[in-house]
Structure formats: structure tokens, C-alpha cells
Amino acid sequence: MISYLEFEKPVAAMEARIAELRETAQTGELDISSELRRLEAKSAEMLASTYRALTPWQKTQVARHPSRPHFKDYVETAFEGFLPLGGDRLYGEDLAIVGGFAMLGNRRVMVIGHEKGNDTQSRIRHNFGMGKPEGYRKAVRLMELASRFGLPVVTLVDTSGAFPGVEAEERGQAEAIARSTEACLALGVPMVAAIVGEGGSGGAVALASAERVLMLEHAVYSVISPEGCASILWRTSEKAPEAAEAMKVTAQDLLGLGVIDRIVPEPMGGAHRNPAVAAASLGKAIGEELDGLAGKTPDALRLMRADRFLRIGA
Predict the structure, then answer these.
(1) Over 90: is that where the pLDDT of 251 sits?
(2) What is the pTM of this model?
(3) Domain range for residue 274?
(4) Domain of 130: which CATH number?
(5) Which has more pLDDT, 79 or 20?
(6) Both 122 and 27 in a single domain?
């Protein structure tokens, strides 16, 4: 069952009406097939027009949708033979950041990403996708392992930010994020990052410092959440919609600014409406980017990364 966002209420009402008519049609007492087709076409157009005109704040809500696919969903659909690898060999395991070997088409890769969970229990277990130092140190270990075996690295970014708790700070959160960012930039193998939901602050950059950065159509990517920005600038989180507009958090804005390299289309109504299609689209785009990077020397790849980040804001 689809969970509707506030701005989708007209679509929700229309789809509820269609569902009622379908139930009536099953009784066979009335032939309402033509009316059903008319309402379905109207509903599809209403959904399309709504999503064509999303504001940055509405896109933020779509990126946070509780049914939006996460790392586990993309790996199960777009990749094959995922073999998870755990632990940072220093402190312990962090389930907010998951990684391991996988096949993308006929190519073996190291895939790493944030996992938010899909229900209350799993969200708590995965800490809502907010990585701790041991998660970022695990990511560094897996990137170095991939480099040793000559495997491309694919990262799927979806976090509101790194975990801000006292225990994370005590274990060196800032240093771990910096080391992960450094490991991305130093990789001698191709790296493609994809922002699939929220790309929040250094917790996202630590896994997204690649030579090719993709972004799903309705994902967001920013240095701070709109609510956090509004609380700082206006002393109230109620100004979050204005903050989202000013911060240029959408894929469309960031492509124009050169922060990302490619927008990956989502199914109409967002990835949560058809996760399988969203995953297939993402897998295809990542494969095409890896094809374009194949054969480049380690020095050429490092230079590509340095150039793309130094160009931002120039």
C-alpha cells in the first residue's frame, strides 16, 4: 500500500476513487470499464503534473519517503551475488554502512552504502543510516581491498548525516570521515557514487568523493538538512521550505552547479512507487559510467577526481 505525502492528497483521493470503482466492477453488475480508464488516465496525468512541478522541499520529502528503496533493495535488484563483509578491524561492526563484493552485469565490483532500514526494528538496528566511525573505517578497509584486487568501487549514498552522538565523537568521527574521503580520492580503481535518497553533510561526502557522481531524480544532497539550516538562520525549523529552496539541494540544481555529473530518472511518482524499475535504471547508469572509466590508469583516475572537485565553484 502506498503511503501518500501531504502534497499528494489530490492524487490519493483520485486513486481511492479508482480502487472503489474496481471493487464495484468485480461484482459484474455494471460495466464501468470506460469510466475506469478515464479516471486512470486522469490520475496518471495528475501524478505526472504534480511531480513535474515539485519544489525543493517536496523533493526532500520524496527523498525521505518511508517506502523509498534503500541499499539492500538496490543490491538485491540491480546487483547479483552480494557477499557482505563486516567489521573495521579496529572497534566493531556498524550496520548503518554496509558493503561487500557483488556482480553488476558481468563486472565484479565492491559496493558500499548506507542502509536506513524499512521498518521500525530494522531502522533502529541500522541506526537510520547514520554511520559511526567504525562504519567509515570499514568503508576505507573495503575500498583498499577493492584497490588491491583491481575492482571498481560503487557507493550508494543515503544518509541524513553521520551519527552525532557523544560515543561517535569519542571514537573519532571527524577523523574517520576525513580518512574515508581521503581513501575515495586516493583510489587507483574506478569509483562511481550515486546519491539515492538523502545525501547529508560529511557523512555523505565520505562515500561520494568519486570521479563520477550520479543522483536519482528526486534525491537531495546538501551540507546540512533544510531544517538544520532554517534553525541556524531563522531560529525556527518552520522555514525549512525556504531553506531548501536557497540551498539548491535538488539533482537538477546540483547538475547545473557541477556538483554531480548525471541525473538518473525515477519511475513516475518516485522510486518508492516502483523500486524494481528504479533499481534497474540505476544499475544501467552505473554500468555505463564504469564502461566509460574502464582502461584508465590509476593516476588518470586520481586526476579526474581532483579536477572535478576543484572545478566546483570556480
Answers:
(1) yes
(2) 0.91
(3) 60-311
(4) 3.90.226.10
(5) 79
(6) no
